Amino acid sequence: MSLECLVFDCDGVILDSVPIKTKAFARLAEPYGGEARDSLVMYHAEHGGVSRFKKFEWFFSEVVGREITAEESREWGELFAQYVLDEVRRCPLIPGVRDVLTAWRGKLPLYVCSGAPEEELRFVLQERELADYFVDICGSPPAKHELLARIVAKADVLPEQTLMVGDAQTDYNAAITVGTLFYGVGADLKGGGYPWGQDLAELNAWVAANR
Predict the structure, then answer these.
(1) Contact indicator for 122, 10 with CB cutoff of 8 Å
(2) What is the DSSP string of 59-105?
């Protein structure tokens, strides 16, 4: 069955922004001590693609020892955005992504499916002059698998005609849940039994071979 739709995560797939966001989580947790900071950084690394607000909830519940308040969640969200926004607006693109977007724009529907807040995601991709490549840019909430299912429905294609391109286990899990194909990006997903690349340099050839 031919490939009919391409869906991309953002951080680590379009933008080389994962280290920037890791530093932001560390900065938020620093006042609670080094061990707490390291716990949040590790949780973030193990749950790429999950909403930052879910990670805040986990930190307060499991590390601080109480539930996060709505006001604290809002404040942490605002601080996180302040810490990352300027750097994300100028960080490098993942190698090969511009070539992929240019090659398949107008030939296949292209979507973004990210755990980042949707309004922020749209703003950043517009600033980077990337937004116009995509039919739609979808961010959290809801969860990644729900976003991916909505994209498949909107594109009016079968899941098995859709490729999810991601750099985190959350992306792979979403693809499995929805039934799409999956292309892994980056060292953390190497050797998973699906097509893979360190970056997107080989993705064009893979897509062309599966059209």
Answers:
(1) no
(2) HIIIIISSPPPHHHHHHHHHHHHHHHHHHHTTSPBPTTHHHHHHHHB
41 shares its domain with 132: no
Condensed to tens digits (0 to 9), the pLDDT of residues 99-148 reads: 999 999 999 999 999 999 999 999 999 999 999 999 999 999 999 999 99
Closest CA to 202 of 131, 77, 100: 100
CB-based contacts of 122: which residues, under 8 Å, 6+ apart? 131, 137, 139
Q: 189 and 183 in contact (C-beta within 8 Å)?
A: no
Instruction: Provide the CATH number for the domain around residue 122.
Output: 3.40.50.1000
Alpha helix (H) residue ranges in the chain:
18-29, 34-46, 52-59, 70-88, 97-104, 118-127, 144-155, 169-178, 203-209
